[in-house]
Specification:
The chain has one domain (3-449): Porin, CATH 2.40.160. The protein contains 3 helices and 18 strands. By secondary structure, the chain is mainly beta. It is elongated. The two termini are 24 Å apart. The mean pLDDT is 85. It is 6% helix and 57% strand. It has a 14-stranded antiparallel beta barrel with strand order 2-3-4-6-7-8-9-12-13-14-15-16-17-18. The chain has helices spanning 3-21, 44-47, 115-120, and strands at 37-38, 76-91, 94-111, 127-140, 143-150, 156-178, 181-202, 210-233, 249-257, 260-274, 282-297, 300-312, 318-330, 348-358, 374-387, 394-408, 416-428, 435-449.
Length: 459
């Protein structure tokens, strides 16, 4: 795909994403707490390995979780992600099932100097620079819950809780590598609006009133993070350069940021309605308040390691393996939302392991397509930062992942990829609280192009 066409496609999809991101569809009662359900910040190529992103880098795929990885890009990479989720909510004997889905990400990354041009120019500079842009949801809010509270001496009270909306992030990332050591940084902006509404009504009164509490919160603020990676190739002295891909390789990675200051502007409307007087609700009074609160998104830190090696098979194939381990933590106990001071949070953490198998890592075209598919697997356990309302119990999230990286092979051209990832997990609030058992499928489409910034020579 010529790079001009890629630019046009990227701009069109950016415009379309503005509408698509504004239509999130989830069913998660826990998204009522804080700023909603925090979304996955990784790509389809990493999702299948349980999101082990600290030490991940790849010449064909992006990783904004650790921006240092952008310096390892060898081609322009344009990535689009879609996800679908099936959840089973359990509370005692009550069970609710449902589908949800959304556009997951829209990203573009590229090396600042064309790899082929470096070879033609005999450029042996040890410095490599990659840049990228990323747009995706940061958190999502979506729920519609009915509850009944029976008071024998008073009445039966009906409650309805409804939430919509979410927040989004846009990032500009850069990664610079000197030989085997890379540093990177993301600068970005978080924005969005989410609504949390509540209504209270009585069942048995002759002319009941319904009290409706509407809360709309607008979030905005700048965000950033740094990352670093060290990549070591276990090379013997005098080893031929073209054999590097078959040598054992080890990558150490870390990323993090301090607190992010954000503003939360909250508008509240309280109304008393009576649906019995007319076919439409009649308003019998209301109050409106608006206020702006400063809040801090917590500091975060992640560290990980990835090891890659190649086995020579009996039929002459070089089978490539990658194994990784990740640990991350965030200081959510310091987060306070002035609009809802009653909510409490805890420091969160996440542990994940993942692996990838490529049956044949030869750069040349092969007849057996199955040998060019990347097979991925992983597992994770995490402590969610939110505490359940009422009893302040911890939320835990654990599960397994599997994935496939299907190359779209063109002879003499650039390989693009279809990355599928399936996550099977559970978000558990403990005894007496909701349990969410889910399956989430992510489709990541990666378009690769090696012609950006390529020097043309004419005779």
């Amino acid at each position: 795909m010529p790079y001009k066409n890629t630019v046009v496609l990227f701009i069109c999809l950016m415009m379309g994403a503005t509408w698509s991101f504004a239509q999130p569809k989830i069913n998660s009662p826990y998204s009522r707490i804080g700023i909603g359900d925090l979304t996955n910040k990784n790509f389809g190529s990493i999702n299948g390995m349980a999101d082990i992103s600290s030490a991940f880098h790849d010449p064909f795929h992006l990783n904004f979780r650790n921006p240092a990885s952008l310096s390892f890009l060898q081609v322009t990479s344009f990535e689009v992600g879609l996800n679908a989720r099936y959840g089973r909510l359990e509370s005692g004997d009550d069970v609710q099932k449902g589908w949800s889905g959304n556009l997951a990400y829209l990203s573009l990354g590229f090396p600042m100097k064309n790899t082929e041009s470096r070879i033609l120019d005999r450029d042996k500079s040890p410095i490599f620079w990659g840049m990228g842009f990323d747009l995706r949801p940061y958190s999502l809010v979506g729920y519609d819950v009915d509850a009944i509270d029976v008071h024998p001496q008073i009445d039966t009270i009906n409650y309805n809780y409804r939430g919509t909306g979410g927040t989004y992030q846009i990032l500009w990332g850069n990664g610079v590598r000197y030989k085997n050591f890379a540093l990177g940084a993301n600068l970005g902006f978080i924005f969005g609006t989410f609504n949390n509404d509540r209504s209270v009504g009585f069942t048995n009164l002759e002319e009941p009133y319904i009290d409706v509490f509407t809360e709309s919160s607008n979030v905005s603020g700048f965000i950033w993070n740094f990352g670093a990676q060290y990549h070591h190739i276990f090379r013997k002295k005098g080893e031929e350069e073209e054999r590097v891909r078959n040598l054992p390789q080890l990558t150490l990675g870390a990323y993090g940021h301090s607190n992010h200051n954000i503003d939360i502007k909250t508008d509240r409307l309280t109304q008393r309605l009576s649906p019995s007087y007319n076919t439409s609700d009649t308003i019998f009074g209301g109050t409106f308040t608006d206020s702006t609160f400063s809040a801090k998104l917590p500091a975060e830190f992640g560290i990980g390691v990835m090891y890659q090696f190649v086995n020579r098979t009996a039929d002459g194939r070089n089978t490539q393996w990658r194994f990784g381990l990740d640990y991350s933590t965030a200081a959510w106990s310091n987060f306070e939302n002035g609009a809802r001071p009653e909510e409490r949070f805890q420091n969160s953490y996440r542990i994940a392991v993942g692996a990838e198998l490529l049956p044949d890592n030869s750069p040349s075209y092969v007849k057996n397509y199955l040998n060019k598919i990347r097979y991925r697997i992983g597992g994770f356990y995490s402590k969610d930062p939110r505490l359940t309302l009422g009893d302040n119990k911890s939320l835990t999230n654990y599960g397994i992942t599997v994935g496939l990286g299907l190359p779209v092979i063109r002879k003499g051209g650039d390989n693009s990829f279809l990355n599928f990832a399936l996550e099977l997990g559970t978000l558990d609030g403990g005894e007496g609280n909701l349990k969410d058992t889910y399956g989430k499928l992510t489709l990541g489409i990666t378009f690769n192009d090696k012609n950006w910034f390529k020097k043309r020579k004419f005779n």
